């Protein structure tokens, strides 16, 4: 008669045979568990391998940093260390519409402090009137047109008295793809515009986000207002991409990583491993930890050639450089940036 307990021996069965059956059953369970674990781990490894392959295949590395870089000198005449405190990234966005070749419409300096507790973004208006090494006075955007990334890096280092460690460039269409990859973003606009944006919160898909970061002619301060929009968008995208709903979804991670790196170009020293290490160090960043401001300028003016320019506030620019060199950006932002 069959036992009421599945797998139990019938009456009179040899105890030794019973122990053998139990051992065989245990081995079968362990084999099944080991197989499941192997399949799961194998899937994870395969996914990570695929993702790494896609990212590595997407990203291009170029010589963005100047050759034979001279020492950076602070206003007091001392040399700025190559490594310094914290890390400075120059992030550029190029508009790829016809007629916009050779121009960078997004110039953002991203400072990550040594303790990686915040992400501090400074937007540099493209009409900022600065000294360009070997070219004299011109708009900061002209440095990119004259000598691409290396000359823009040299211009920024001279302007601020800091060392820029890494450079990354993408295009405006990359903003659109990344937005769609995370399912859209929610952005606060300081003012509305002809692009359908209203003052206050806006939920944007990729196409709307592209229009949002491009608009400037109908905004109150033109490129200055557009720069604030771009920083607000970058913050919104960063927060959405690192939200639990996306970061815990392998497919969402893969979509975003693919979109973010499809047309990404970085300097030769910014390897996949380095980017991964930076991303891990920022894993605890939240909304209040991402702060941004506009590089200090004292007003608007006209160049000798009649072009509209933004006049640098020399004193506050020196303060900004000092804050970046000493990793005291929190103090700088508290003093000079209105919430």
UniProtKB/TrEMBL annotation:
Keyword Cell cycle listed: no
Tree of life domain: Bacteria
Keyword Ribonucleoprotein: no
Disordered as annotated region, ranges: 1-22
A Pfam short name: LytR_cpsA_psr
Family assignment from sequence similarity: Belongs to the LytR/CpsA/Psr (LCP) family.
Protein name (database record): Cell envelope-related transcriptional attenuator domain-containing protein
Organism: Fodinibacter luteus
């Amino acid at each position: 008669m069959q036992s009421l307990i599945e797998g139990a021996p019938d009456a009179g069965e040899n105890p030794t045979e019973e122990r053998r059956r139990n051992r065989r059953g245990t081995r079968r369970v362990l084999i099944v568990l080991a197989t499941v674990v192997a399949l799961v781990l194998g899937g994870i490894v395969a996914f990570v391998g695929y993702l790494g392959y896609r990212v590595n295949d997407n990203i291009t590395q170029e010589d963005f940093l100047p050759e034979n870089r001279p020492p950076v000198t602070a206003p007091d005449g001392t040399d700025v260390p190559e490594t310094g405190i914290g890390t400075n990234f120059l992030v550029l966005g190029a508009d790829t519409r016809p007629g916009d070749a050779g121009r960078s419409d997004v110039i953002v300096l991203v400072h990550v402090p040594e303790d990686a507790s915040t992400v501090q973004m400074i937007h540099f208006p493209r009409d900022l009137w600065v000294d360009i090494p070997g070219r004299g006075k011109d708009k900061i955007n002209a440095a990119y047109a004259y000598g691409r990334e290396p000359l823009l890096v040299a211009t920024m280092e001279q302007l601020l008295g800091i060392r820029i460690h890494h450079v990354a460039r993408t295009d405006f269409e990359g903003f659109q793809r990344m937005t769609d990859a995370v399912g859209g973003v929610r952005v606060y606009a300081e003012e509305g515009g002809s692009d359908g944006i209203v003052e206050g919160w806006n939920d944007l898909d990729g196409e709307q986000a592209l229009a949002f970061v491009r608009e400037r002619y109908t905004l109150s301060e033109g490129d200055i207002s557009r720069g604030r929009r771009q920083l607000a968008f970058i913050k919104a995208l960063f927060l959405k991409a690192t939200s639990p709903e996306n970061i815990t979804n392998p497919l969402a991670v893969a979509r975003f990583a693919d979109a973010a790196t499809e047309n990404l170009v970085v300097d030769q020293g910014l390897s996949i491993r380095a980017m991964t290490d930076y991303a891990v160090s920022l894993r605890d960043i939240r909304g209040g930890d991402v702060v941004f401001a506009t590089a200090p300028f004292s007003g608007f003016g006209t160049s000798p050639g009649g072009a509209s320019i933004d006049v640098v506030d020399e004193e506050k620019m020196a303060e900004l450089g000092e804050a970046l060199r000493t990793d005291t950006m929190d103090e700088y932002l508290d003093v000079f940036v209105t919430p």
